[in-house]
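[Meeting: bench + compute handoff]

Bench side (C.D.) handed over the final construct sequence. Compute side (W.E.) agreed to return the predicted structure before the next meeting so the bench team could plan truncations. Sequence as handed over:
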Amino acid sequence: MVDVFLSYKREDATRVGNLVAALRETGLDVWWDEDIPPSAPWEATIEQALRAAKAVIVCWSPASVSSENVRSEARVARDDGRLIQVFVESCKPPLFFGERQGVDLSRWRGDGDDPRIARIVECIHEVAGGEPVAASEQPKARSFGLRGLTRRHIFGIVVGILFLLGAGSLIAWRVAIARPPPQIAVLPFEDLSPTHDKAYFAEGVAEEILSTLASEKGIKVLGRSSARQIARDADPKVIRASLGVTHLLEGSARSDGNRLRMNVRLIDTSDGSRLWEEEYHGSLGDVFAVQDQIAAAVVKRLRGTFFESAVKEAPVTSVDAYQSYLAARALMREPKRETLTQAWHIARQIVDSHQDYAPGHALLAATTWLLADDPYSYGTIPVDKARRVAVSHAQQAIRLAPNQADGYAALGLALLPPASFAPLRKAIVLDPSRSSIRNNLGIDLNLLGRNDEAFDQYRLGVEIDPLSSAMVNRYVASLAASGQGEAAFRAIDTYVRRGGDKAQAWRFRGFANSLLGNESEAIAARLRGLALDPQLPYQTEWLAMQFNLLGFDEQEARYRAGLSPYLQLFLADDRGALRARALRDGAKSWSANKFEYAIFSLARARDWPAIAQVYDVRPPDLRDLCVRTPNFAPFIAMALERQGRASESAHILGCVQRNLTQQLASPYRSPDDAPGEPELWQASLFALRSDSRAFSWLSKAVTRGWLGQYYSGSLSDWPQFDKLRGDPRYTEIQRRMDARIAKERARVLAMRGQLPPQT
């Protein structure tokens, strides 16, 4: 004789299975139809188990309420006093069952220690001991009639009822309006494949669902970088407190041969309960339909309505190509040359074998550009070639799938601003969950001096994806560059408190201190970050430049290997080789990483013919420097003026002044500028006109932390100030710079014993 018989509907099997496991852990003998042997007669076995059970648990849900079999089993148990009602999903029970007590498990997450499980066990023992579970005490309604009431009384009652209904509706409407929209985090699905080698597939499927949910209005979706960093066993309440997430979507994917099984759960983070759980079976070819079904079911739970009209038609291809695409995308999460090269090869194979698969073209475009020799990329492909290939494949992706974000994102990544703005904004609309697109848009806005708009992109990106290192880095750096140091460090502390990577946090502190002019603190932070993670991007480059500025030649030389050829030659002070390389590279030099060091080296030598020669071979998209004014533009203007090209020189200086006026009037600065750099260039323009206001602007630059970063701390190396020599103010400003450099150098020496060893 078994202790408990479970009656349920097949659609609720996953949730009921969790209940079976929890009850069995308490020592109870639980029977459900999963225990029926394959050869046994189905109906007879169920009937026999139902008669033999000491207690019967009926698991109510909308599906089981409509099941005649479940209702019949419930009636048998009710009639002989063995019925225990459990609600695995919110619903109204059948007629004549609503007056009985029931345990609400609609938000139960499967925890066997939950008090509700203890209550069910207690009820089972009561029923087994011959004590039927009592019906709920229902207060009797007091009857009354309208006899004896006048029309005035009735009219007053009706008016009062209408007033209360109206007021209640208004209050309910205001509460609904004030209630913030639900925010969901889609966690990477767990790989349950037999060989456990499909993690990229499980995580990629989750990301596809995330992208679909992100396009649904009224639901906020946590960015994918942040969602990937949430541990599967994390306390939902802690996640809610740190990231503001109201719901978690978690699950698993299992593929074995051509078979696919996916289990998905929607969790309420307020109490960790399960709102919904479903399991999907099919072939791998069904994966695209399953993704849409899961997204629709989640939205139904969060909003109460399906969003069939909002679901975008996804590009469909073979499952092999889709799995390869997800594998390449997983490799791209670690942005370095080796992993990006592997992703590029996969993308090339996808495009060669599946010409009509839009995500493959977008993937090839993005990886090609990320392997370019560009300051924001990681490879050595000449920029002009990388741009040409990337743009071609991105445009093909858009033609094949005009309602998908991937093609627009890749196109915006490869184009120069302002041409990049439109495709990047389109990609954001199509997939708001991808903070990396906002990051790319912000960088391009900074390049044109539109720093307020750029800061808005970084701020929104951090709101969407608060654990994204790329977004937090640009956001923190923008605050620091704008003189908001306290806000910058608070943002870093918030990132750490939310569970952000500690090595990345030191990277952020290093960047922020550099922009605030605290070179010694920046060096200390970068060394601490590298001690935690030797692969932190760009840190060796920064350390080499900072040690060079402060006169630590031995330390700087340790970081020289692997840097851009232009920066290596500059740090080695090989001016002849820098000149030769810039002239030999010609137009290609303009897109080379750290090319500006060659221009500064030529300006320091007052080699105006060489600068003019480099300027004349610039690529077509930089024919007019007003479109994208580089920081070394004043040096080019000086070279042209000395070559007798006064009108061209004046045109460039006018562009620089307009750009500076816009930047200096803005409350936000570009994180790509050195501390005080806008003030430096404003001083330069006044100095070229022999205007004495140059001294006040140069003083402002030094006050904001400018020490010649990261070229030279000697004003004599900056030719625009040649006319100011001999003035006592020039000497005083140089004295201040020397004193600050000596102070920063002394701090580094004093911290040596406290810093991690340099590699």
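W.E. noted at the follow-up: The first strand starts at residue 4 and ends at 7. C.D. will use this when planning the next construct.
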